[in-house]
Known about the structure:
The complex is a heterodimer. By secondary structure, chain A is α/β, with parallel strands linked by helices. Chain A has helices spanning 37-51, 67-70, 89-99, 111-115, 119-127, 172-178, 192-204, 230-235, 286-298, 316-319, 332-335, 339-349; strands at 59-63, 80-83, 104-110, 132-138, 141-142, 148-149, 183-188, 208-214, 237-239, 241-246, 261-265, 271-276, 302-309. In chain A, the strands form three sheets. Chain A has an eight-stranded mixed β-sheet with strand order 2-1-3-4-8-7-13-9, sandwiched between helices. In chain A, strand 11 and strand 12 form a beta hairpin. By secondary structure, chain B is α/β, with parallel strands linked by helices. Chain B is built from 22 helices and 25 strands. Strand 9 of chain A pairs antiparallel with strand 1 of chain B, so a sheet runs across the interface.
Amino acid sequence: xxxxxxxxxxxxxxxxxxxxxxxxxxxxxxxxxxxxxxxxxxxxxxxxxxxxxxxxxxxxxxxxxxxxxxxxxxxxxxxxxxxxxxxxxxxxxxxxxxxxxxxxxxxxxxxxxxxxxxxxxxxxxxxxxxxxxxxxxxxxxxxxxxxxxxxxxxxxxxxxxxxxxxxxxxxxxxxxxxxxxxxxxxxxxxxxxxxxxxxxxxxxxxxxxxxxxxxxxxxxxxxxxxxxxxxxxxxxxxxxxxxxxxxxxxxxxxxxxxxxxxxxxxxxxxxxxxxxxxxxxxxxxxxxxxxxxxxxxxxxxxxxxxxxxxxxxxxxxxxxxxxxxxxxxxxxxxxxxxxxxxxxxxxxxx
Amino acid sequence: xxxxxxxxxxxxxxxxxxxxxxxxxxxxxxxxxxxxxxxxxxxxxxxxxxxxxxxxxxxxxxxxxxxxxxxxxxxxxxxxxxxxxxxxxxxxxxxxxxxxxxxxxxxxxxxxxxxxxxxxxxxxxxxxxxxxxxxxxxxxxxxxxxxxxxxxxxxxxxxxxxxxxxxxxxxxxxxxxxxxxxxxxxxxxxxxxxxxxxxxxxxxxxxxxxxxxxxxxxxxxxxxxxxxxxxxxxxxxxxxxxxxxxxxxxxxxxxxxxxxxxxxxxxxxxxxxxxxxxxxxxxxxxxxxxxxxxxxxxxxxxxxxxxxxxxxxxxxxxxxxxxxxxxxxxxxxxxxxxxxxxxxxxxxxxxxxxxxxxxxxxxxxxxxxxxxxxxxxxxxxxxxxxxxxxxxxxxxxxxxxxxxxxxxxxxxxxxxxxxxxxxxxxxxxxxxxxxxxxxxxxxxxxxxxxxxxxxxxxxxxxxxxxxxxxxxxxxxxxxxxxxxxxxxxxxxxxxxxxxxxxxxxxxxxxxxxxxxxxxxxxxxxxxxxxxxxxxxxxxxxxxxxxxxxxxxxxxxxxxxxxxxxxxxxxxxxxxxxxxxxxxxxxxxxxxxxxxxxxxxxxxxxxxx
Lengths: 350, 608
């Protein structure tokens, strides 16, 4: 078995603005099962960061516990990383984000890490609109403990153990919309064309950006009867739109039909171009997406694409008016401004 | 809402690659494909890495007949082709690894073909005892032919003996490999110059005649002073032969060598060993256009031999009956429409003093001994008309190969042509159609040993090419028979062998098993694999790969349509054969399979 990736890359690999090739954004060789959907998501993150010209040292990647949470080792080797306690990634990310709001935070979690042990953390991170790209690598199964059903396994779905799931599934996207999430996307690991622009948009969005990505577990949940297998996801994939990410400084030059195409401008000036495939859905209307999700469930479809976005999103740091300077760069003068300032504050309470 | 669908049955699309054609995977093994004899290079390099030097030698011996000789002197068409040279700076030192096999092998007598005392009743005359003739002899002797070999030299080897100096190819190495063949019961007629083809044919002694007489005539350069200075003006290959056969032992202190090919390099380096102190190579054209192999130029320059470019010889200067030097016109090269012109710079002519001048500006064939009324047709350049496939002349019982057939090339080409001539002679003597060529042997077998375990060492090392150590210049310049290159020691040989990518272990794709999880595309370190929608022409498809496949010398592997309607396209160009695609494939749709391709030989005998 190969544990080391060959150092050689393709000599004609394109370089981005910083002179990096996509190789500079890769990580160690994956030790997940061969064919794991998570590896495709890692590759999509690599591609997205390369395309966005993000310098690797400006990224912090955080994760909890589980197969999904191992993946930060397999992408962005040159970025900051924190592999936290099971289900506690949102807390650690919140702390890190408050301490230094200038980094780009990518949280990676799974259905066990977010929908079971970390559910309490997950919902509060959404409530607070923590500025993070929160990726749930959702395979409906506990792979690392040999294949028990997870809380996102659809009722009636059959994993490798052969017994249909008796319980209702938690819909990560529905829940996030309910809680007021400002960016919600859903995708499938086998569809990089959709995944990469979604990740770019999520990274560019200020606030909590959920990407719930169906990521088949080849070992325990890729059999007939499973609703999270490669075949099922492909056959039941219902894309709301064809999505293009238009980076800052690039104009959309081609004419488009405004009834069919939605252009969403993000706060940094980049744009998301959505070629609508579903006429009754509006990415700015919570109600329309809640309905669409329910209808899709009835039709046994997996709704994918950008489900909802609030362009007016105000992220946690702005909500609580926290300092823009990373805490480790604050001087004693900043932290201890002297008795005159204290007097002023006290006077305010009199 | 729509379910994503890509299938469109109405457009013309790229057809899946036909990997059943034995040449598809053969072409992926760049080194073997580039070798005129198609020596299975990665196979013997793996054997060297495993310490199986004898087996590695026999793989070579079967294919190229002279592993010890070629491990020192080959023109190495394999090395510029080596995939490693496309990924990093330098290719694997294939040639010098071949020498390792020859240097460290055990006794091979047991492995040699048995030569029956009972012959098949067919007699063949082989005229010339160089590499092509000896190859024909090697291939035909085990089949029972009675072989008569003729040469005007006192020993076999042809130009390998007369033109390659001993400091590059020691006599023992050459003698050993020539004798392996002569000892197969070949009847030797040395010191015998064949004056007349008519006499040979009229004798009716032979069922077929093979001509492997090389290109034995060195080209002269007639300029003013040539006649007056002739005592000190030498023709390169004739001079080298006289040195090799111990007729010449010294040369003047100041020597000018004219010409930029490998013979010129051998002449200047030999001069340095025979008393030449101030030895110069002077060429007409720019340095970059010299025909000599890069490494031979390097070796010459390391022996303090300057190479002076853009000097056109004008005159031999002879004073009082003795050569004193040469006059050259200074020129510069100008290129119009890819054609080169040498334009005089207008500077005054240059004089270089010399005690001796050696002319090494090319060599020619010599066919005065073949009468023109024997049914052997000659073309406008006075070369025999020879089929480049079967090597038969216009007379069905006369065959040519090597430099004598299609003009001067190199040893490995002569060997390759010798193999083909031997096949033709065998078919001819058996009354069969010589155009019905035997097919190459090929075998494709999985190297899978277990989960993620392969029967080959798939790890890709980052070691740079190792240098072959040289003997001390002080010593080698004093003795013309002392070999300059020392060869790799075993530890370095192993490390150099590990630089081989094992390109003969093929990435074989089975579309029926693929679930399109993209794992192979994601993991491939050189981004060779792309899953994409099909196109109606190859060029468009090549351009839309992850990294556009612009190197058209390399094929792309195109799969049949997969479940989603997409196809898998692999650009063979930069594949490291690291096996990661197969390791990360959950369904074994990718497999690493060892492809052995053996070029056909007469009687299809195998010695390994």
